Amino acid sequence: MSHLPTISVVIPNYNNALTLARAIESVLAQTYPASEIIVIDDGSTDASAEVAARFGERIRYIRQPNGGVSAARNNGARLAGGEWIAFLDADDIYLPERLAAHARWIESEPDIDFLFADQEYREPDGKLLQHAIDASASGRELVARHPGCTEIPIRREDFEAFVADGFAEIRTLTVPRRTFLALGGFPLEHKIGEDLFFFIRLCAASRKGGVVNLPLAIYYIYPDSALRKDALLAQYRYVAALDALEGEMRAVEPGLYRGWRAKLRQGRLSLAYMYLRKGERLAALGAVAPMLLRTPSLTSLRDVASIMRGIP
């Protein structure tokens, strides 16, 4: 007999009283019900508790001292009773088939290591900006190799491109709870790039994954988000999160290592050009120099030279 997977949905919340109900309602409206909805309130000081109380026993509402979104997600995963974990930020939503599309795949292939899907990027007023797969080189390549397919496998040979320029997003991740806990969850020491940090480690521990080529969630782009308040600081922290994986990446298979290196290279180049635009020339050079010093290559030499050309 087939086994229907149980999926716990974890919603970290910090002062999102205005959007929390919308997020919870999107999970309650799923065509395949979550086994539980866990809202981890990360020390909110607004009316989040009152909003959550309206849902009664349909959700588990747990307060904790403010520790950041990673601490909230990790705590939710530890408390979850489902075999699988899915995450949703309190200012985003699931589309109705989010859980069903992954549950069907898990039922037919229970040893799958992880699942993702397409998602929509929208402005707060609902204007569609783009789709995750369309915006990703690896996503476009996977779709081209599997025309007309809704369920597209991701094999180990795909991990390099998936990490280098992929479409992995926290809202469409479904992962076994035991795997999430074994990998230590999201890193508490990284406030930006913590999701990519986890995704790369997840690939290193996986044999196969999959992507549903349908939008299953909506990510709302807010102008006052942490990524946009100080874009330079956010990029610096993003690079730091990727850089922190260096020790582990030296022990993984070559393809995944190359994907991580490509992602780190692009991150460092972007950081360098951001410094140049602010006139911080030495900082720009410092952003790319580690690539040449650690793993000298013609590519890293060209990258350093390109930044130096931008320094009068």
Short description:
With 312 residues, the chain is of the alpha/beta class. The chain has helices at 17-28, 48-53, 69-79, 98-108, 137-145, 159-164, 177-182, 194-204, 226-229, 231-243, 246-249, 254-277, 281-294, 298-309, and strands at residues 7-13, 36-42, 60-64, 84-87, 93-94, 114-122, 128-131, 151-155, 174-176, 208-220.
Strands side by side in the biggest sheet: 3-2-1-4-9
Radius of gyration computed on alpha carbons = 20 Å
Multimer state: single chain
Question: Percent of residues in helical segments?
Answer: 40-55%
The CATH architecture of the largest domain can be given as: Alpha-Beta Complex
Helix count from the secondary structure assignment: 14
State which percent range the strand residues make up. Answer: 15-25%
CATH class of the largest domain: Alpha Beta
- The total beta strand count reads 10
CATH superfamily of the largest domain: Spore Coat Polysaccharide Biosynthesis Protein SpsA, Chain A
Q: Output the structural class.
A: alpha/beta
N-to-C series of helices and strands: EHEHEHEEHEEHEHEHHEHHHHHH
Integer count of domains = 2
Q: What name does the CATH topology of the largest domain carry?
A: Spore Coat Polysaccharide Biosynthesis Protein SpsA, Chain A
Mean pLDDT: 95
User: Sheet with the most strands?
Assistant: 5 strands, mixed
